[in-house]
Amino acid sequence: MTKAKLAAATVLFGFALGPTPAIAQETGFGHPGQVILSADRLFGLNFTNTTMEDAVTGSKQSQSRTNISLLWPPLTLDTLSPYTIPRVAGDFIVVAGLTVGGSIGFVRSTGKIKSEPVGTPSTERDADTITIFTFAPRIGYALAIAPGIAFWPRAGVTYYSFNVESTSTGPTPVTDSDTLKGFGLNLEPLFVFSPVPHFGITAGPVVDLPLSGSLSSETTPSTAPNPPDDKYRFTNFGLALGVLGYF
User: Fold this and answer.
1) Helices (H) and strands (E) in the chain, counts
2) pLDDT digits over 84-139, tens only?
3) Residue 172: inside a domain
C-alpha cells in the first residue's frame, strides 16, 4: 500500500469511528465563542428570610418562608422574594470556559375589583398594580466533567425593584405606592446536563445574600411629608432548575 493510500485509509477510518476530539469539543457545552441562551429559576425550592427595620423607631421584624414555585412566583409584599422570579438570560463564553452575561426578570399584574351589594348600585375600582423587575449581571466558568455533563459555577449581583400601587375611589382619588428595591450577591454553583447537542438542563443550589435594600412609601396627593425609607433585606437559599440552548 502506498503512502497516499495509507493516509486516505487512516482519514476514512477516523471518520468511521466518529468525530475527532476537536470536533466534539466544538459541539459540546463550554467551547469558547459559544452563545448561551437560558431560562433560569423556572422551578425552585427556596428558603427565604426577610428582615425589615423601621427607620423611625429602629424596631425590627423578620419573616422566614419556604417557597415552592413553578414559573409563577408569589405576588404579595408578605410572600415576595426577588429570587423566585423566573428570568431569561444570555451568556457568552469568552475564552477557556470563562462566561460573561446576565439575566432579566419582569412581572406585572393589574386588574379590576367589582362590588355588587344587594339593593345598591355596583361599583368597580382598580385592583393593586404589582410590578417586579430584576436585573442580574454575572460571570462564570463552564467546565466539562463528563460527556454531556458540565459544572457551571456563577457569581453576580442582582438589582431588584418591587412596586405595589393602589388607588382609592371617591371625589379625590388617592394613590398609595410602596416600592422595594435593593441589591443582592448571587452564588449559583450549577450543573448542566446536556442529553442532546445544543440543549441543556441546569440544576443546583443557589445562595442569595443581601447587600442593600429599602422600602419607601409615597402618597399622591400628599398632605404630609413621606415617611423615611425602612431598611429591607432578603436572604435566600435553595435549589433551582432551568433550561438552556448553546450555539
Assistant:
1) 2, 12
2) 889 999 999 999 899 999 999 998 888 887 887 787 887 777 778 888 899 999 99
3) yes
Set of cell numbers at residue 34: 459559544
Which residue has better confidence, 136 or 83? 136
- Which is it for the CA torsion 64, 68, 70, 75, positive or negative? negative
Asked whether the beta carbons of 229 and 187 are under 8 A apart, the reply is: no
Domain CATH for 233: 2.40.160.20
Residue 148 lies in a domain: yes
pTM of the model as a whole: 0.78
Q: How many domains in the chain? A: 1
Residue 35 belongs to a domain: yes
Domain span at residue 113 reads 31-246
pLDDT at residue 202, as a whole number: 97
Of 123, 95, 122, 124, residue with least CA distance to 112: 124
Upper half-sphere CA count for residue 114 (Cβ side, 13 Å): 3
